[in-house]
Amino acid sequence: MTTRKDGRTPDQLRPVTIERGWSEQAEGSALISFGKTKVLCTASFTPGVPRWLTGKGKGWVTAEYAMLPRATNERSGRESVKGKIGGRTHEISRLIGRSLRAVVDMKALGENTIVIDCDVLQADGGTRTAAITGAYVALVDAMEWARGKGHIGKNSVPLIDSVSAVSVGIIDGEPMLDLAYVEDVRAETDMNVVVTGRGLFVEVQGTAEGAPFDRAELDALLDLATNGARELGGLQTEALGDA
Amino acid sequence: MTTRKDGRTPDQLRPVTIERGWSEQAEGSALISFGKTKVLCTASFTPGVPRWLTGKGKGWVTAEYAMLPRATNERSGRESVKGKIGGRTHEISRLIGRSLRAVVDMKALGENTIVIDCDVLQADGGTRTAAITGAYVALVDAMEWARGKGHIGKNSVPLIDSVSAVSVGIIDGEPMLDLAYVEDVRAETDMNVVVTGRGLFVEVQGTAEGAPFDRAELDALLDLATNGARELGGLQTEALGDA
Amino acid sequence: MTTRKDGRTPDQLRPVTIERGWSEQAEGSALISFGKTKVLCTASFTPGVPRWLTGKGKGWVTAEYAMLPRATNERSGRESVKGKIGGRTHEISRLIGRSLRAVVDMKALGENTIVIDCDVLQADGGTRTAAITGAYVALVDAMEWARGKGHIGKNSVPLIDSVSAVSVGIIDGEPMLDLAYVEDVRAETDMNVVVTGRGLFVEVQGTAEGAPFDRAELDALLDLATNGARELGGLQTEALGDA
Amino acid sequence: MTTRKDGRTPDQLRPVTIERGWSEQAEGSALISFGKTKVLCTASFTPGVPRWLTGKGKGWVTAEYAMLPRATNERSGRESVKGKIGGRTHEISRLIGRSLRAVVDMKALGENTIVIDCDVLQADGGTRTAAITGAYVALVDAMEWARGKGHIGKNSVPLIDSVSAVSVGIIDGEPMLDLAYVEDVRAETDMNVVVTGRGLFVEVQGTAEGAPFDRAELDALLDLATNGARELGGLQTEALGDA
Amino acid sequence: MTTRKDGRTPDQLRPVTIERGWSEQAEGSALISFGKTKVLCTASFTPGVPRWLTGKGKGWVTAEYAMLPRATNERSGRESVKGKIGGRTHEISRLIGRSLRAVVDMKALGENTIVIDCDVLQADGGTRTAAITGAYVALVDAMEWARGKGHIGKNSVPLIDSVSAVSVGIIDGEPMLDLAYVEDVRAETDMNVVVTGRGLFVEVQGTAEGAPFDRAELDALLDLATNGARELGGLQTEALGDA
Amino acid sequence: MTTRKDGRTPDQLRPVTIERGWSEQAEGSALISFGKTKVLCTASFTPGVPRWLTGKGKGWVTAEYAMLPRATNERSGRESVKGKIGGRTHEISRLIGRSLRAVVDMKALGENTIVIDCDVLQADGGTRTAAITGAYVALVDAMEWARGKGHIGKNSVPLIDSVSAVSVGIIDGEPMLDLAYVEDVRAETDMNVVVTGRGLFVEVQGTAEGAPFDRAELDALLDLATNGARELGGLQTEALGDA
After folding, report:
1. Is there a smaller number of Cβ atoms within 10 Å at the N or the C end of chain D?
2. C-alpha angle E74/E75/E76, rounded to 5°?
3. What's the order of all strands across the beta sheet hosting C174-177?
4. Closest residue of C to D191, CA-based?
5. Cβ contacts (< 8 Å) between C73 and chain B: which residues?
6. Tens digits of per-residue pLDDT, B7-18?
7. Is residue C154, in this structure, part of any structural domain at all?
8. Residue C127 assigned to a binding site
9. DSSP H helical segments within C30-179, as ranges?
10. Which of F87, F204, F214 lies closest to E91 in CB terms?
11. Is residue C6 part of a domain?
12. What positions does the entry give for phosphate binding (chains A, B, C, D, E, F) (predicted)?
């Protein structure tokens, strides 16, 4: 079996840590690491919903993703200084938002809004998958906070499943789990998979960066991802403890 | 078998037309329709590459997607007036660019740039897949134009495959091909698949808008999409005739 | 008499076509061609007016003009990507809006808003005059649509006249009608004239691009424009048929 | 004969003053008043031309117009704060630039750039016409400054004519010269006319704000404007004295 | 004692003039000069407050500062054209606003808003201190205007003190008052001090542009500034006369 | 002696921690805490200088400050999403840059650029002073890194002093050191003081938020700040160890 640059086997995650409640300000938060990738996820709860949703008896969950300028090996300019948000940032923010909404029952949430912020403090590949995995933990805590404050009813169950995400890719013809940056840039195909705790798919985003891929390769990647996500789900449960 | 609102079977494309060379200004162009969805695709060829690529002996292909304000049933504000591009526009522009680059040999293209513009004149679902499918036709013509002008060598083969795209989705539990707008809003799962003429995948982007999906559903969608893309490939070939 | 590059006499319009109802989404629409210049004009009707007009018993008509990036011989960057609208675009949008408002009785329109979008699909000179001429056709249909829906009363007459526009210019000392792009760039003086069906002026915008012009030249240009506009008015009537 | 609110006859200018050399920083400047309208015009000379003109042996003249937020009776927000320039500002800046370029021989100017800034300190109608009239004075001085510094040759004659501008309009059916703000808002038709010292037209921009106008009205307005501009030309000559 | 380039002693202000009521449009205004530095200050009064203050029985005073592009020796681009406000502009606007609010009793002002605009027509150092000093005069007049109109009660005393500002700096080791531009660029330390009529500090902003400064230098600068501000306060009183 | 809400004496700093080298990507970094305030400071070294400095044999140091949206008790919108940077952000970025440049010998740095990024992960008052204090540590490490790589000569001494910063303020008439957020909002006067290791002032920025302050109060604040900064200097030395 191939050994990867950092000593992992192809189907092995990097060391994952989840510091739940890292922020003393947010209703829910987690500082998550996938190896050297570190993402601070906060969940901000506010009663009420945006105007377009008012009076429908439903809540709203949305997300914003960003990277600190020196999260990466070379400093990149701030989007606030450029005065506009890049396509990649938009794309990932939307992905995180959709992934979380997929496990939320908006009626049970009631007319409340949760904004998830995922800020990458250090980047080494897999920032969007770490963000989704950490954001779920922050989301759970924000919901528990809201329940404690009476914004969510005692018997409401706004979370219908858990959710985590992992990247997979094909490098030198071999499918691998949870790519670090040096692997990501070499991958022929790169896929991000978002999976619920029950093992269902929320998002499957596969891209041929180099050579297009066939059905067999796609299947192998989906297998790897499903297993990785199951493992991440276990770590989320552990981090959340009795929540 | 279920009959769809517009009379199609679940595995049937809408009527597709490709008006090659619609624009008298661009080096390559196509006005493509997937049912009521109409996208004007132009390919603009310029010798030379952006500064960051200069001197590497490679070309560049990029794409921009936009919608006319009244392409849709309700008018939406212009992004130029808002002063910023929305996340959806960014996401689709990037998807089109990646899809086309996947079938271009940048070395064979040489230090030349092709910008693809896909402007949706009328929208009824599937605008991104129509855009990719039409853009390929425009791209072929721009390359032939460039060959004629001597910008691309006689023996260079910059196109290594063809590419088309189609949407698939699950509606009321049933997988369906090429969703019209009314179907798209009802779909539990929505997937855009970009496939080469040889049947390889370039992009697989599946999203659970409603309920998450399982592996069997994913497989059924991929089967539908592969067949639909094969059919679109045939229509591209026909439109291109002897090019 | 001078023969122009495209075979026209100095006082001759290019072939003009008006495809009424081109868009299946808008309340009114027309795809108009002045030679190779093609502009898609849509009219979007919405009940209600902007806040600053509310409660005054008057309607509002406004217009936005834009060009597809590859409408022209060389691709120009999108204004949405630049994040701002250029002076020329602003100027033309305002001209179209004023021209249409000049023939609308805002009280008869009632508290309703019509937004005209003129998107240049292909440009070969005279895009603003084609836009105004086509926009009038779209406007008529949007008003009829609104009457059908009961937003405009049966006996209300919101349109008090028709309106069309044409460019004229002096080339090599000779006044000419409806300049194509190659003529426009050579013109010493360039004038856009907006005329109502009754032959009154709504806008007269003459600019000396090269040598300033005297009163006699100005008079000759106005004569040409008045005749050209009369002819365009006839084509509008024909396109509208029984509307 | 009608007497106007401020005591003028229909064909009378407001009191016009030109303080040449108001700015101690600019190469040329003038603070011009048309009644209460006050515009500070500066001309900034720099050797060299924008990149797109380099090496063609020609100069460049351009203009920017703006209004202080409290130039008007009600404060309006700053365009810098809004982050974008409005259509009206764009339109007027372009008009001023074209008007001045019409009297400049770019070859005689050589590869030099002059930027005209017209900032309205107080507004009471006619700001664009005052701006053009004052800008010409600033332009003359900037050219003389440049000649003194050797940037323009001793025998070069970059100014081929002088230029001034005035507004005219029809109020209650009567043509009037140089409209003050209270007249401007009531005018059925409003026209800005830019005329050279030799009496030729550079720009004729007539707009029916209320009722469209006929040819006889247009002729009467042009007569009034021509006379007004001749008078302004005399005042420019006087202000410039021996320049 | 050192004589400065313009003949002043180290503790001498430049000639200061205040043209009160320069603008015929604003509720209060002053054109103030500190030597060649000229700033037009207007105060715009509007009944009502921004939404976030509504119903609290308090008023609001805010300020915006800007420079005309050719106020300085070399033309600088307009912030409206760049589409964003620079850090220096932001910083000075905020300083002016805070300085004026320090002498206003917001309760006595009542639910009214005053916007101060300080536009630098010519710059030769000390533009922010001239702006604050002139803005106070405009503010007084706007308040008197409002009292006359009944927006401020007869017995309300919204102004609890007067305020002026002056710059000081250390040049070649010597503390100097009211730096002109040529002095400012050479200063090792530069301090702007805002002082009330009663001699209290509102703002002390000292910056080591060159060498850091010690406590004794800081003390000497504060002494100079306090005296300069007292003199400016006298000039304000004189300009305001019987107000 | 007054005891503060968090148990401190008026002249006591909050617990300060400096995690040097927190980032594995940047050339220098520190995660600094002043109580609950946490700022991640990175220093990015690049050979070369911006164009306007090229060829002058001098280096450049600049800084950017920002706050994560949920650093504060209530979430605030991202400046990247708003598309512009607020005045406060600009002001603080500029302050940090000036403070660091005051202790750098730009000639000894040579033609190299260091960009400091200070991102507030959690905010509880004093974010700008924590940022400056932490940024100095990051700066030292970036310079040592550059020396190791040969970008800075062995005998060059680009750092001529150290620098730290602290806030002071008057609360209920009593001067206090290092204000936490709840203190800051109540302070009548608020001052940020930047001091070098040798005890010289780089910046003194005092603002009367409530009542203006007299000279005696100013003196008391400066004494407190000088002592606080001396203590912070000791902590910096400790964190840097043998650097």
Report:
1. N
2. 115
3. C174-177, C163-171, C189-196, C201-208, D201-208, D189-196, D163-171, D174-177
4. C204
5. 25
6. 999 999 999 999
7. yes
8. yes
9. 79-82, 87-101, 106-109, 127-148
10. F87
11. no
12. 88, 126-128
Tell me which H or E stretch contains B16.
Answer: strand B16-20
Distance CA F56, CA F41 (A): 28
- Write the ipTM: 0.94
- Residue F88 annotated as part of some ligand binding site: yes
Residues on chain C touching B117 (C-beta within 8 angstroms) = 68-70, 75
Known binding-site positions of D? 88, 126-128
**Is position D5 within any domain?**
no
Q: CA C45 to CA C61: how far, in whole Å? A: 9
pTM reported for the whole predicted model:
0.92
Tell which residue, A169, A121, A168, A160, has the closest CA to residue A139. A160
Residue A11 lies in a domain: no
F73/A78 Cβ within 8 A: no
Ordered strands of the D60-67 beta sheet: D16-20, D28-34, D37-47, D112-122, D60-67
Residue E224 sits in a domain whose CATH number is 3.30.230.70
Using a CB-CB cut-off of 8 Å, the residues of chain B touching A197 are none
Q: Which residue do the tokens 């004007």 mark?
A: B40
Task: Show which residues on chain F lie within 8 Å of chain A, measured between beta carbons.
Answer: 23-26, 29, 36, 40, 42, 44, 46, 64, 66, 68-73, 75, 78-85, 89, 115, 117, 119, 121-123
- Tell me the nearest-neighbour CA distance from A98 into chain B, angstroms: 8
Residues 6+ apart with CB under 8 A from A31: A18, A19, A22, A38, A39, A40, A41, A121, A134
Q: Who among C24, C44, C73 is closest to B122 (CB)?
A: C24
Strands B112-122 and B60-67, bridge-based pairing: parallel
Residue B92 C-alpha, separation from nearest chain C C-alpha, in angstroms: 14
Range of the domain at C102: 16-240
User: Do the beta carbons of residue D151 and residue D112 sit within 8 Å?
Assistant: yes
**Residue C12 backbone dihedrals phi, psi, to 5 degrees:** -105, 135
Q: Which residues pair with A38 in a beta bridge?
A: A33, A122
Interface probe, candidates E80, E82, E88, E91, chain F, greatest F C-beta count within 10 A? E91
d(CA A143, CA A141): 5
pLDDT tens digit sequence for C19-48: 999 999 999 999 999 999 999 999 999 999
Q: List the chains bordering chain A where 3 or more Cβ pairs fall under 8 Å.
A: B, F
Which alpha helices (H) appear in chain E, and where do they start and end? 79-82, 87-101, 106-109, 127-149, 181-184, 215-240
| Contact between A25 and F123 using a beta-carbon 8 Å cutoff | yes
> For chain C, what is the radius of gyration of the CA atoms?
18
pLDDT tens, D42-86? 999 999 999 999 999 999 999 999 999 999 999 999 999 988 899
In contact, A96 and A135? CB cutoff 8 Å: yes
Phi-psi region of D21 (alpha: psi -120 to 50; beta: other; left: phi over 0): left
DSSP state of F104: B
CA angle E171, E198, E115 (to 5 degrees): 85
How many angstroms separate the CA atoms of D43 and D66, rounded? 15
Query: In b/e form, how buried is each residue of A64-75, taking b as 16+ CB within 10 angstroms?
Result: bbbbbbbbbeeb
* Mutation for C interface: D79, D91, D162, D163, most C CBs within 10 A: D91
pLDDT band at E242 (very low <50, low <70, confident <90, very high): low
**Helices and strands: H and E segment counts in chain A:** 6, 9
Q: Do B117 and C69 touch (CB under 8 A)?
A: yes
- In one letter, which amino acid is D208? A
CA distance D121 to D33: 10
Among residues A132, A128, A112, the alpha carbon closest in space to that of A47 is found at A112
Of C88, C90, C218, the CB nearest to D201: C218
| Number of structural domains in chain E | 1
